[in-house]
Specification:
The complex is a heterodimer. By secondary structure, chain A is mostly helical. Chain A contains ten helices and no strands. The longest helix of chain A has 23 residues. By secondary structure, chain B is α+β, with helices and mostly antiparallel strands. Chain B is 51% helix and 14% strand. In chain B, the strands form two sheets. A seven-stranded antiparallel beta sheet of chain B has the order 2-1-7-6-5-4-3, with helices on both faces. Chain B has a four-stranded mixed beta sheet with strand order 8-11-10-9, with helices on one face. In chain B, a hairpin with a 3-residue loop joins β6 and β7. The longest helix of chain B is centred in the last third of the chain and has 31 residues. Classes of the chains: A mainly alpha, B alpha+beta. Chains A and B meet through α2, α3, α5, α6 and α7 of A and α1, α3, α4 and α16 of B.
């Protein structure tokens, strides 16, 4: 079944039901999607190891492709997972282009280091006891890259099948990765 | 008749099924028996509760640590809008013929794809499967020349680990020939369920296998496209350990020199490396020393000698010397020159007992400690713990200062990214150790002094901060000793000393 363009656009934004009755251009739909998904997408790329400018560039590239997608009246089923998948593949392609196999791992550590080691003097320290911060950091360091990515996407609300599509790995590998990550974190959290 | 329960005592659903069922991601006919089982089985219920704790912990981690560190700059929409305008502007393009309207990139991609398909058909008349690639690789490996230098790195969470035989065995890596294809194929062929993928790169072919069986979750073998000789191997174990093996061109063996006791000569087949690699190697060495606490004040020096590193020092204990040598053994391009201090018996015979200053006032808290800890053993334990914590703080502060002297901000910036990240983790490890000891000190000192646990860390970089932190740590240690264990003629009162303790505690952190 081929949807007329406006219907397809509305169909693409299930969370904006109140707008369903209003006609919406592809540009308007893009803006809505940008507001809803840009930050999660950017953060995901950063946790994959993309440096800040690259994360922004690739996130925007993904949205440009979404714009094209919307303009061409293509069906808009679950565009959030679609965006993550496109962005992740752009990132993988970027790594391949740079022919820096180990570069991914190196840059992953830049953002994770920042998250794990910088006890900046702000409200965070008031909210989160130092001890908790330390054991959480230690627990996160025990996770593999796939486990961290899968956990991150799951916490963003993606289903296991969607995560498998985004990362280009098997469904059961994703389930196993999330299960193991939760085991590690749950075990560390026990008794704290 | 009620259906037989699918899972009975000692027979439980897989943890993955528990997770999927509780997350509502199993079909209802599959989920119901699992959920029923969870109701009845404490073991599985406990597992599910552990998942919940893990979820809670991760959300807290994201909220307070990860998300603030990975937030985008504001103005993203404006920048996207300008890119969008650039994309949508050329309306005249619509008037061009079809072939001209299709972006050049698409033509290029289509052409490359077509060329790739033709090349693939020409190069691989038979379907390229992991099995066929591995068959060729085993044949190539059997007839290969003497292997080049094969470097093995074992990591967990980005940190380098020692290469233990058990880990290498688990990863099916032969220590003598780490890149050997045969163990990889044996493991691959032994799997009942696996997912293979074969990727043809510019000069290489990569076979990747993932599985849910056994200890290995993923393994990748990279081969030369022309010869099928192995170039690299990557293995991920289920417990988070990652092993990477790669090769470097071999150079002729160096002439063998006479070894001396306590000296391990550099790896005989050394690869020529850049200074950048040597710097990265130095960080690895520092981590190796960190793991055995050999960077907390022992007289060890790391010196560069061409592409190599030499770790030298004089130790007073043979077992410790051997332990340090062992920690560094196996690291290519690293050699040790560790001497053993020989006590001068003549000098010792002439030595006089130190004047303990019997007339000096004793430790400042003697009377209070006697009142608070009537039991001598408990008093001794308290004093011992306080002194131990103060010493720990000094040792880690000293290690940080030493790192700061070696790595000015410009030197850190010049490090390769991985080495830089590793160095910063090393710094963080020392900072955490200081924080942990300081936290404990704060707790045990509570009856005598309120040591502020919420002191604000200085905004200066860690190199600058390390100088004042070391001074504070040394004074903190000195005052601790003066309060609890040492006499002195410094006219210090216990109140003044405790205030100094507080002040220096604040400067520590």
């Amino acid at each position: 079944m081929i949807f007329p363009r406006r219907v397809a656009v509305r169909h693409a934004i299930p969370r904006l039901e109140e707008d369903a009755a209003k006609p919406m251009s592809a540009a308007e739909a893009l803006e809505r999607h940008f507001a809803e998904h840009y930050e999660p997408l950017f953060r995901f790329l950063r946790t994959c190891g993309a440096p800040e400018p690259v994360a922004e560039d690739l996130s925007q590239e993904a949205f440009l492709r979404l714009y094209q997608h919307l303009k061409e009246d293509r069906p808009g089923h679950n565009l959030r997972a679609w965006l993550f998948r496109v962005a992740y593949r752009l990132w993988v392609d970027r790594c391949r282009l740079g022919q820096r196999e180990t570069g991914v791992q190196e840059s992953v550590w830049e953002v994770w280091n920042q998250a794990l080691r910088d006890p900046a003097p702000n409200v965070e320290r008031e909210l989160l006891a130092r001890e908790r911060r330390e054991w959480l950091s230690a627990a996160m360091l025990r996770l593999s890259e796939v486990e961290r990515q899968a956990l991150h996407l799951r916490s963003d609300g993606l289903k296991y099948g969607e995560i498998a599509e985004v990362l280009g790995i098997g469904y059961w590998r994703v389930v196993e990765a999330v299960r193991r990550a939760l085991d590690v974190l749950g075990e560390e959290a026990h008794g704290r | 008749m009620a259906a037989e329960p699918r899972w009975t005592a000692g027979n439980h659903p897989e943890p993955e099924q528990l997770l999927l069922a509780t997350e509502g991601q199993l079909a209802s006919e599959k989920a119901e028996p699992v959920l029923d089982h969870i109701q009845q089985c404490w073991q599985c219920r406990s597992r599910v509760e552990s998942f919940s704790r893990g979820i809670e912990a991760y959300l807290k981690f994201r909220e307070t640590m990860l998300d603030p560190a990975a937030a985008p700059q504001p103005g993203g929409w404006l920048r996207l809008s300008s890119r969008l305008a650039a994309v949508t502007e050329p309306t005249a393009a619509a008037k061009k013929p079809f072939f001209a309207r299709v972006p050049r990139g698409v033509w290029l991609a289509a052409s490359l794809t077509a060329a790739g398909v033709i090349a693939a058909v020409l190069l691989y008349p038979e379907p390229v499967t992991a099995q066929s690639v591995l068959d060729r690789a085993v044949r190539a490996d059997a007839g290969a020349r003497m292997p080049a230098v094969q470097r093995v790195r074992v990591r967990r969470g980005g940190q380098i680990l020692a290469q233990s035989d058990s880990v290498l065995n688990q990863a099916r890596i032969d220590r003598a020939r780490p890149l050997s294809v045969a163990p990889f194929r044996e493991w691959h062929d032994s799997l009942k369920s696996r997912e293979d993928s074969v990727a043809a790169l510019a000069d290489e072919i990569r076979v990747q296998t993932t599985t849910t069986e056994g200890l290995i979750s993923l393994a990748t073998l990279t081969l030369a496209r022309a010869t099928y000789e192995p170039h690299a191997k990557h293995v991920e174990l289920r417990d988070g350990i990652v092993i990477d093996v790669d090769s470097a061109p071999a150079i002729p063996e160096a002439p063998v020199t006479e070894s001396t006791a306590g000296v391990h000569e550099p790896h005989p087949a050394k690869a020529a490396i850049a200074a950048e690699e040597r710097d990265a190697l130095e960080v690895e060495v520092r981590w190796a020393l960190r793991r055995i606490d050999a960077d907390l004040g022992e007289p060890l020096e790391i010196q560069a000698a061409g592409d190599d590193l030499i770790i030298s020092g004089t130790l007073d204990d043979a077992a410790r010397r051997d332990q340090i040598a062992e920690a560094l053994r196996g690291m290519a391009r690293v050699s040790t020159r560790l001497q053993l201090a020989i006590p001068d018996t003549d000098l010792l015979a002439k030595s006089q007992p130190i004047d303990t200053g019997g007339d000096l006032p004793g430790p400042l808290l003697t009377s209070r400690l006697a009142a608070d800890f009537p039991d001598t053993e408990r008093r001794r334990a308290f004093v011992s713990q306080a002194l131990h914590l103060a010493r720990d703080i000094v040792r880690h502060s000293w290690a940080l200062r030493r790192l700061a002297e070696r790595y000015a901000p410009s030197s850190v910036a010049a490090l390769p990214p991985e080495a830089r990240a590793s160095l910063l983790r090393l710094v963080a490890a020392h900072q955490s150790a200081i924080d942990a000891a300081a936290q404990q000190a704060s707790t045990i000192w509570k009856p005598y002094a309120e040591l502020d646990a919420h002191a604000v860390r200085a905004r200066a970089d860690w190199q600058t901060a390390s100088r004042s932190a070391l001074e504070a740590a040394q004074t903190f240690d000195h005052i601790t000793a003066r309060l609890l264990a040492a006499g002195g003629d410094d006219n210090l009162s216990s109140v003044e000393a405790l205030l100094q303790l507080q002040e220096n505690y604040r400067r520590l952190r």
